[in-house]
Amino acid sequence: VPEDVVLHIDEAGASVEFGGNIVLHAGVAGRPIKRVVSHHGSVSLASATEAECVEAHGDITVLGALRAELVRAGGGLRVGGNLEAACVHVEGNLHVGGALTVAELTVAGQLTVEGPAVMQTPTLAGDAVFHGDVTANVLRARSFAFNSGTLTARGVQAEVSVAIGDVRLQVDAIVAPEV
After folding, report:
1. Residue among 72, 88, 79 nearest 112 (CA)
2. pLDDT tens digit string along 17-58?
3. N or C end: fewer C-beta atoms under 10 angstroms in the chain?
4. How far apart are CA 8 and CA 38, in angstroms?
5. Using CA atoms, how far apart are residues 108 and 93, in angstroms rounded to an integer?
6. Residue 162 pLDDT exceeds 70
7. Spatial CA neighbour of 48 closest among 28, 27, 29
8. C-alpha span between 129 and 147 (Å, rounded)
9. Can you tell me the distance from the alpha carbon of 169 to that of 152, in angstroms, rounded to the nearest whole number?
10. Distance between CA 62 and CA 168 in Å, rounded?
């Protein structure tokens, strides 16, 4: 373990903090992961992970599912499986290979969700692409593509366009220059 790695292990789990890149293949010392923080690098988690907090100055990559209280990526976030979190902030793109369940979501780049998505009122600055059921209060983004499933929301607002594929709509209002 490099000298400047902060590693804390207790009954609740292991916490890892480091200035550079962090790659974890499993829990630490047989304990679950509590916190993973990279102050100047990226974080890569090679298996399904449950943690209180996962933060990186750069990108975060999770090959399996991720369940966390807080996820904060200064770059992009890529989750191979499901993403379930109380709070997610991503400065780059967010790609979820499975389902997305999140209370507070902020994405500066593009959001792509391959499975169903359940959100409150996300803050989406870029484009959003959904390939499954979407449930939200109000959705706002630059543009949307709803490709399949059911869209359930009070409202959808896009700056540019809303593309709707084979989707069942349960929406009070859609506001966009092009639908």
Report:
1. 79
2. 999 999 988 766 667 788 999 999 999 998 888 899 999 999
3. N
4. 14
5. 7
6. yes
7. 27
8. 8
9. 6
10. 31
